[in-house]
Design a protein that fits this description.
The chain is mainly alpha-helical and about 160 residues long. It has two domains: about 5-50; about 65-155, no CATH class. The protein has six helices and no strands. It has helices spanning about 5-45, 50-55, 65-95, 105-115, 120-135, 140-155. Helix 3 packs parallel to helix 6 (about 140-155) and helix 5 crosses helix 6. The protein is flat, with a radius of gyration of 26 Å.
Length: about 160
Amino acid sequence: MKPDPSVLLRRRIVNYCMLVLFTVAIVISIGALTAILWKLSFSGLQAFSPDVFLKSTPAPGSSGGLLNAILGSVILIVTAMVAAIPLGVLAGTYLAEYGRTSKLGDVIRFCNDILLSAPSIIIGLFIYGIIVLPSKHFFRLGRGRVALSDRDSRNSAHF
């Protein structure tokens, strides 16, 4: 059965209108993103200096840098890696060598698959619930270390 010519004409008109609307939306979006990138690059390059890496964060209104934030990130990542890499390599080695047919290997593989599919915000909330709430103390470095080591060990054990 052949479609009605009026239906085909209507479809072509709607298609053309949508094509024009989406093209305009894309041009506007790219223009806005280009303007934002230009402003950020221009302002960022003016503020870029060695002081950004060599000075600590100052009081509001004074000049300074990001040294304490950079060092905190490095400490957090290194301590998470120290905990996560051995655990991930051991779990991966066990799964590859001995865990193919064992019940423990199935459990480890299942837990690893569940953790791989969990978003980072869920891992962070879980760590908050099991570390921060019972202790009633907000220990940022410890919570971040545990959450990051969980993410690193999941990636290391996934062969």
